[in-house]
Structure formats: C-alpha cells, structure tokens
C-alpha cells in the first residue's frame, strides 16, 4: 500500500499538467468536478497533504540532527502521516484528533474532544525535543491551526500545506496562520511535495525565532 500511494502521489504531476496545461479549457472543464470528488475520497482514506516517504526520511534526518526525537500531530486524521513519520522517518509520534469517524486507521490516533486541547496531553521529555506538525489545518474560518500554534511552546514546527494565497483569508488555513508563522518562526528547510491540481503544497521545518 505504501508503494502504491507513493506511485499515485508522483503521478499527480502528470494529472496537473493535463488539467492545467496547454489543453483548451473546453476539453478539461469536465475533469474538475470528477477530480474534486476523487480527491475527497482519497483524502478520507489517507490525508489531505501528500507526504512522500522520501520527504519524511529527509525531514526526519534534519530534525534528528537538531535534537528532535518526535512529532506531535494534533490533526492526525486517519494516522497515515503519523505512520510515515514513524516507519519512514524513525521518529516517535503522538497522534490525536477530534474527528471520530474514519474510513480506515493506519496508526493509533487518540480521540480528543477538541483538537485545541490536544497539546494538554503529557509529552515525554522537554518540548525542545518535539516538533509540532500542522498538516493541512481545516479551512477558514476555522482557526484550529492558529490556535494550536499559539499554545505550542516548543522550539520546532513542521507545516505541510499551501504556501501562496490569493486573498486575505485564504482557502485553507487562512492567511492569519501563515502570517503568524512568518512573524515568529525562522525557516530551516523547505521540501517540494506532490500536490493536487490547483494546489501549491510544500513541507517546511521552522525553529522559533529567538527574541532579544
């Protein structure tokens, strides 16, 4: 399954060129609603962000060199990305989510009443040895991504999602979350990852900016 998912994620580049490439709109317009339905189906089984094992390995190596031993994933969904960070990246993962109904569970995800309270869970060791993962926080006006960032007191942050937004609110996490990251966090590493047609995803590692 991991290999099949990997091949699928890489094949989306071909799909993107077909949908958004040089073909006339009249020949591709009917593809969009079909692709959207397919996307929702795939995301319900796995995750919204298309994390590959290669990127999980490379990012985990950088995190380990920085002294990070684990990832806190408070929006874990099916646990697919948590599994990749553990199996491919070799990191410990604390996976939680407030959404109970899941089509399939790829790793153990603890159910919490509110994802905003997920960080109240006890964490083994100092927070400096853990990184907060925000992977495709829910759409605006939902503010759970920003709320989680505000209560996270650790030194490291992993963000997986869209980077370029065309308006103030943005279609996914909202511009306010990206502004908060830009204001208070220093970029350490950025990785290109596969993305669905029309999306501009990447995975970035940040370290909290030191104040004078």
TrEMBL record:
Name of this protein: Class I SAM-dependent methyltransferase
Lineage: Eukaryota, Sar, Alveolata, Dinophyceae, Suessiales
